[in-house]
Amino acid sequence: MNLRDLSYFCAVAETSHFGRAAERCHVSQPTLSAQIKKLEDELGVTLFERSNKSVRLTAVGQEILLIAHRVQEGAADIRRAAMAHSDPLAGKIKLGIIPTIAPMIIPSLLAMTGRKFPALHLSFVEDMTDPLEDMLRSGALDAAILATDPMHSTLEEIPLYDEPFWAAFPKGHRLAQKSHLVAMDIDPQELLLLSEGHCFRDQALSVCRHAVSQNAAQADTRATSMETILNLVAAGAGVTLIPALATQGGRLAETGVIARPFTKSPRGEGASRRVRLVFRRTSPRLQLMLALSEAITDDLPPLVHAVPKEE
Amino acid sequence: MNLRDLSYFCAVAETSHFGRAAERCHVSQPTLSAQIKKLEDELGVTLFERSNKSVRLTAVGQEILLIAHRVQEGAADIRRAAMAHSDPLAGKIKLGIIPTIAPMIIPSLLAMTGRKFPALHLSFVEDMTDPLEDMLRSGALDAAILATDPMHSTLEEIPLYDEPFWAAFPKGHRLAQKSHLVAMDIDPQELLLLSEGHCFRDQALSVCRHAVSQNAAQADTRATSMETILNLVAAGAGVTLIPALATQGGRLAETGVIARPFTKSPRGEGASRRVRLVFRRTSPRLQLMLALSEAITDDLPPLVHAVPKEE
DNA sequence: TGATATCAATAGATAATAGCTATCAAAAGG
DNA sequence: CCTTTTGATAGCTATTATCTATTGATATCA
């Protein structure tokens, strides 16, 4: 049995005429006759009672016609479903974002996709890098925005932008006197860090390499969110590093926290992290990933830098 | 698209493994891969996200899987329906019978089919030959039991039996003195006939050929049923011919009507009619027709005669 | 780290089949 | 009696589903 055979069958049943049915199916009459015969042989029943003058459905034929219509409707539903999903820039997409990026990027991301991909429905999961990669690999996420090279070879990445680090300290702090800082300006004793697992903790530490060994004193004050750390900074508990985009929006000034960029090195390499769109190498939505990354990099905020093309 | 493709698709979706799915479908893995790819191309969507380590349904794939199951269920329903109708000796059959046969044959017919074809459901239409032939040709009937050669070449017949004619007259009638009659014994003035359209009317007249022209006197007393005629006979209104089987059951004796057979001619040809099973030449139920006619002739009542084999 | 195992995809050849044109055979109608 | 209609048949071709053998890419294990 075959969907084509069923459509031939329906055509004959509805026209009561092999020739006209063949025309409707865009095949020759002998072809159609042969296929009907094949179907009858396969089912072991006679579907039509034929004579030169008339073609009449048998009792089984009538019964089967009803079911055949149902089956063909199902086939049409499959085509419809496929059609509805054939736009690569449409549908639902579940995006994981690390906590040091999520709050800053989600509003603009939603605005941008609403504008450029009106048929796309985004949902978000905010978690740390490792759990996000796990979810990505298991299929629980379609993509993630991360700030590290993906660990697994099954994952693919598209660079989005480089985001410099800034130092944040309370108003009146000695660092406020300089417009640009260097890593050594940070006093390891003062440095506040996110809890382990946050990639930004490791990145901040690698900027302040001199602080690694001496930071043990702060072991008991590791905050689980940027928000908490900045509150600690505002309260005068220390200084910290924050990603550039976290300086936006005026929240810092309100709480009396001051932020300063670092001086760029001669080669233009300041302290920064590379933010990437990550997804399974096997993802069927590569096209969407490319479109999405391009849309993001097309309209970057001034505080971050597009990735140089040759990379 | 194709029912086979859909079953391949379902197999892969359910095993998440091309090799095992291929095994389940009894085809090679490359075959299955190719067909899935073809299906994806045709639908314009990716159904599976494949890697060496895992095969995962996409969102469209999940949606389509549900519909595909529905479609396959429909295909199974078609096969089931065909299976249920594949026994040629089962199902419903609508049988037309002329009024001068119906009352005598229906009880034994029902008993016989109930015994020999328990899966067969008979229903009956009692009418005169012409309307029955029309219904037969239009498909409103599956078969008919008639006593005439079918008029249309589209109809086929199987002889069942030859049924002699008997004369019926009131108790004390002069004919009662003879044990066997000849046609000329019938007085045209007395002959009562069924109304026009009944084949038995014409057959009775052809037996009493001498009565044809002289029967005009009875023109106003044509009864529409054998029952009525016999009541007239019982009341002394005349004599009539009846088919042999109408003499069964004791009803005649109760009403004081006497029946006598005719003498057979030297060649064994008495006055009689041939009763046949008639159906469309194109009928898909030829097998049932043969079985049915054989079952009827296998167990004829003593008053009728099997049709000689050479005919 | 290198060897092995796993698994889907690809290549190339073959078998099955759906398709065509031309023709036939039966029946109906003028 | 001839013509028309219509489904079935015959013979051939194009398509395609299928096979085996192999590749290439990962993952696993020693």
Q: Helix- and strand-based class of chain A?
A: alpha+beta
Largest β sheet strand count, sense and barrel closure of chain A: 8 strands, mixed
Provide the succession of SSEs of chain A.
HHHEEHEHEHEEHHEHEEHE
Low-pLDDT segments, ≥5 res of chain A: none
Count of folded domains of chain A: 3
End-to-end separation of chain A: 55 Å
Shape of chain A: rod-shaped
Give the CATH level 1 class of the largest domain in chain A. Alpha Beta
Q: What level of helicity do the residues of chain A show? A: 25-40%
Spell out the CATH superfamily of the largest domain in chain A. Periplasmic binding protein-like II
- Sheet-strand content of chain A, in percent, reads 15-25%
- Record field, number of beta strands of chain A: 10
- Over all CA atoms, what is the radius of gyration of chain A? 32 Å
Rounded average pLDDT of chain A: 89
